[in-house]
Amino acid sequence: MNASALIAEDEPLLAQALAAELARAWPALQILATVGDGASAVREALALKPDVLFFDIRMPGQSGIDAAVALADEWDATDRPFPALVFVTAYDQYAVQAFEAQAVDYVLKPVQGARLQKTVAKLQQALAQRLLQAPDFEATLGQLRHLLNNATALGGAAPAAAPPGPASPLKVIQASVGTSIRMVPVDEVLYFEAADKYVRVLTGGHEYLIRTSLKELLPQLDAQAFWQVHRGTVVRAEAIDTVTRDEAGKLHLALRGRPEKLPVSRLYAHLFRAM
Prior knowledge:
By secondary structure, the protein is an alpha/beta fold. 31% of the residues lie in helices and 29% in strands. The protein has helices at 12-25, 38-48, 64-74, 93-100, 113-132, 137-149, 151-154, 214-217; strands spanning 3-8, 29-35, 52-56, 84-90, 105-109, 172-177, 180-185, 191-195, 198-202, 207-210, 226-230, 233-236, 240-245, 251-255, 261-264. The strands form 4 sheets. Strands 2-1-3-4-5 form a 5-stranded parallel beta sheet, with helices on both faces. Helix 1 (12-25) crosses helix 5 (113-132), helix 2 (38-48) packs parallel to helix 3 (64-74) and helix 3 runs antiparallel to helix 6. The radius of gyration is 21 Å and the shape is elongated.
């Protein structure tokens, strides 16, 4: 079966080894490009539109999972089915369990020919099935949501025991303002946005920066009151005024009390379905 692939692996020797093993296991597979970081993987995949993606979990800038999520946000599934995904990971039982729970395959480092043969057979079957029936893009997004939620385990280390959650959701945000600390009631916050090593805290008329990550902040918020709508954005559900879809099919939120419109990742578009 003729097919094309993109390899995203930041270690050149491992990328060469994977390409060599693929040449033996699947001679008809055309490797369109090999890149070494997540941003390049997204850019090249959008330009080349391969049938298969081999994404290393750990890459500079964006992880393989982050790159797959970013690619899914930009991919036009009406033009071409989303590529079949294969993640490359160091051996770890937690990573294996997480991948096997999904319809996404994985390759362990160092690449073993026998195991890769199984992956190739699975990919060929999936691509043959696409000729008969278009794949369910929503199902792919669901798989990516699952993998995103298990990103720590998939990085190749056992997940640490989760710290006990707060007795009650966070009520006040302590934000530094010059030499002072402003006590910002969470009830006044309209949305949070990741900004490098900080989080922007937006109310109706003010903006604050707090030195924490959105990942650390999210478990402290009331999940019923605040919805994650993008990798880096969490909004107060009651503040959402309208949800609009642009010509490209992407969703944007308008909040009461804020002038800007916030993009909704495809991974979270399922939150907005007309009742």
